[in-house]
Amino acid sequence: MKKVSFAEFGGPDVLRLTDAEEPHAGPGRIRIAVRAAGVNPVDWRIREGQKLGAHPIELPSGVGLDAAGVVDEVGEGVEGVEIGDHVFGEGSSTYAEFAVLSAWARMPEGLTFEEAAGYPSVVETALRIVREVGVQPGQTLLVSGASGGVGSAVLQIARDRGITVIGTAGAANQDYLRGLGALATTYGEGWVERVRRLGPIDAALDLAGSGVLRELVELVGDPRKVVSIADLGAPEFGVRFSGVAGSVPDALAMAADLISRGRLHIPVEKSYPLAEAAAAHIDSRAGHTRGRRVIVV
């Protein structure tokens, strides 16, 4: 089978499309014929060799955590899923023609494989950080870097829970944020005052790692009410860095419910073939994403 992997840490040029042995589903796992794989910032952070305790790896390594596809192997002890089912979920080395998943759910009706591949890690992260930051219905949450996949999910999950959201993003994404129910403003010079004019802030999330933690703490007034998923220097400001996943099966079930009720939709901004995984990483790292990027197999 074809698989994207890397034998050394470094830039996107270390990624190679190689021939590899097919993985197989062990106990409690399933294997899918991958139709699409989600592109997440954690993918290129791991490839660069960033010290992410939740994702220790050995070289050479495959790439990718999220995927959607067709079940073609069911491991021992697995119930409730059959060969031929369309599922989305989380596993390892998902930039490949076949991948083993450790958590999965049936794809909601009407969802394409490309759309479904963009949800697993994104929704798990969004649910986790909304919980960790402690924002409650009726309060206001500030989301810095709100137009990407996690931001798109946070805005919609918060709206579903009766939380007001202020989102910062580039000028081109202001209407996109408003369409998701957020109060929107641009980042850049003067952004703190622009946020203040929109109202008091009860909690804040840093999704872009753009060096704004000091200002977020200032706006909220309490570093314990700020969470970052992108700035490894967060503890220097008394801010929690959230990088360890919670229950992915629970998140997938919640995602399927929200999607089925029409309360969650994350658009696919761009799709890439396996051979262009490096380009996907370059674009993901550059930011300014509206929704998700995916690899199509």
Query: What summary fits the major beta sheet?
Result: 6 strands, mixed
Radius of gyration: 19 Å
CATH hierarchy, class of the largest domain? Alpha Beta
Number of domains: 2
| Apparent shape | globular
Approximate helicity band: 25-40%
Number of strands: 15
CATH H level, superfamily name of the largest domain: Medium-chain alcohol dehydrogenases, catalytic domain
Which structural class is indicated by helix and strand composition? alpha/beta
Can you tell me the CATH architecture of the largest domain? Alpha-Beta Complex
Which features characterize this protein?
single chain; Quinone Oxidoreductase, Chain A, domain 1; 2 domains; six-stranded mixed beta sheet; six-stranded parallel beta sheet; 15 strands; RNA binding; cytoplasm; Quin_OxRdtase/zeta-crystal_CS; NADP
Give a structural overview.
It is found in: Cytoplasm. It comes from Streptomyces murinus. Keywords: Cytoplasm, NADP, RNA-binding. The model has no long low-confidence stretch (mean pLDDT 94). Strand 14 (268-273), helix 9 (277-286) and strand 15 form a beta-alpha-beta unit. The N and C termini lie close together (11 Å). The chain contains nine helices and 15 strands. The protein folds into two domains: 2-119 and 267-296, Alpha-Beta Complex (Quinone Oxidoreductase, Chain A, domain 1), CATH 3.90.180; 124-241, 3-Layer(aba) Sandwich (Rossmann fold). Helix 3 crosses helix 8. With 297 residues, the protein is α/β, with parallel strands linked by helices.
